[in-house]
Design a protein that fits this description.
Elements lengths: L1 H17 L10 H23 L4 H13 L4 H8 L10 H12 L8 H9 L12 H28 L20 H8 L12 H15 L3 H9 L2 H12 L4 H9 L8
Helix pairs in contact: 1-3, 2-3, 2-7, 3-6, 3-7, 5-6, 6-7, 8-9, 9-11, 9-12, 11-12
The structure holds fe (ii) ion.
Length: 261
């Protein structure tokens, strides 16, 4: 039953993505990156659901929310030619509205939970009072998304000439030292304000902050460790700065007691 629902959802999603294909059958490259990102987020969400031992209902909500979480990215790029929400639309609201309006989840007993997980996936904090299934779906998508954002950053660093062109990193200066305000925010588990991100080191340190405090599940932290995401960031930060805070923050992130679950 759940399998059939998810299968139908996948067909609807794929048919929707196909509407953005060009005459040669290809998606514009930036959209193709989002399609690939989504496939990775779905795979990550499955690993998390499995690792956390979720029941079939919860696993279905996680799968569906992972598949749908970035639905609005295609229309966002088409309409506004950017993925920067501040210059266009909140892509989570946009995704939620498109999925709802198209009725893809009509008849799904977990429609509201899945929609909520899509809507909240990019929020700084989840609202209080979510029921257990909605909370699990929302936290799983957020963790699964972060794991893939780690992969994407590593891909960008290893495949671009970032020292000379940091376009993939908001054109941030690559040689500037980390902002002490950012270091302090991460040290004390506070969210970093975007206006405080002044260097490529700051940009990468935000992800160190996620690894320290931002992953909800033990399974996600295990996957993160197995994939070497923290080690990659520490090594890369060493290329950018000799600030001793790098080792301090990265070592602390490795302590097994970190995280909320
Ligand atoms: Fe997203």
């Amino acid at each position: 039953m759940k399998r059939a629902l998810y299968q139908r959802l996948t067909e609807l999603y794929n048919a929707y993505v196909d509407t953005f294909r060009e005459a040669d059958g290809k998606l514009p490259p930036m959209m193709e990156l989002k399609r690939i990102h989504t496939a990775h987020v779905v795979a990550n969400a499955r690993l998390i659901a499995e690792g956390e031992g979720f029941d079939a209902e919860t696993t279905h909500a996680c799968d569906a929310a992972a598949l749908l979480h970035d639905t609005g990215r295609y229309e966002q790029l088409k309409r506004y030619n950017t993925f920067r929400d501040a210059d266009s639309v909140d892509h989570a609201v946009f995704s939620h509205d498109i999925v709802k309006e198209k009725g893809w989840l009509d008849g799904d007993p977990h429609r509201e939970s899945i929609l909520a997980a899509v809507l909240y996936h990019n929020r700084r904090d989840l609202p209080d009072g979510l029921d257990a299934l909605t909370l699990a779906a929302a936290q799983t998508v957020r963790d699964a998304d972060k794991l893939d954002i780690f992969r994407v950053l590593e891909h960008q660093i290893t495949t671009t000439d970032w020292r000379h062109n940091s376009q993939a990193f908001w054109n941030l200066p690559t040689t500037a030292r980390p902002n002490p305000v950012v270091l302090d925010d991460i040290r004390s588990g506070r969210p970093v304000a975007y206006q405080d991100i002044r260097s490529l080191a700051d940009f990468v340190l935000i992800q160190v902050g996620w690894i320290r405090n931002g992953l909800a599940y033990a399974t996600t932290r295990r996957l993160c460790a197995e994939r070497g995401h923290l080690a990659f960031r520490r090594d890369f930060l060493h290329q950018l700065t000799d600030d001793p805070a790098v080792d301090e923050l990265c070592q602390y992130a490795e302590l097994p007691t970190q995280g909320v679950s």
